[in-house]
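Q: What changes when zinc ion is included in the input?
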Amino acid sequence: MDSEKIKQAVTLFLQGIGEDPDREGLLETPERVARMCEEIYGGLGKTAEEHLKKQFTSENSEIVLVKDINFYSICEHHLLPFFGKVHIAYIPDGKVVGLSKIARAVEVYARRPQIQEQLTCQIADALRKYLNPKGVMVMIEAEHMCMSMRGIKKPGSITVTYGTRGCFIKDYERQKMFFEMVKS
Ligand code: ZN
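A: The predicted holo structure follows.
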């Protein structure tokens, strides 16, 4: 990440909106934003492989569901946050991963300019690729600040997306089970 460029851009941006980047409260803002970017865009260029490669043998071949994983991401259209919960289910094919590693995998794809639909796909594809389970289902419920504080101003409205891979595709019974487990 090029923090010099970020600092210059923030200074320009502040001038652009009619602010004075030299006033006391804003003096360290470019530096602060540059440091923050390291964290909130820290997933750029990475994959979840490093988090999912440590696997354990398991006989279990029923749904493993990790629900209510909190995430924060940045909408690539407005550079405003969207945030909420990810629910991930998979059917192991002899291998499972540590539950906290699944949350780490979510972070990799959330910490970049993103759209919710793409985030859903990237998480599902990463699990499919690096864990190779029989099936994966991912659901995301999120509030978008670009809908809450600007434009149509609908605070509290939740966007829901989901994606299926492998044996979850067209298995509506199993999908129903997923939704019931997420709700309970
Ligand atoms: Zn947006």
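Observations recorded in class: The CA atoms of residues 13 and 19 lie 9 Å apart.
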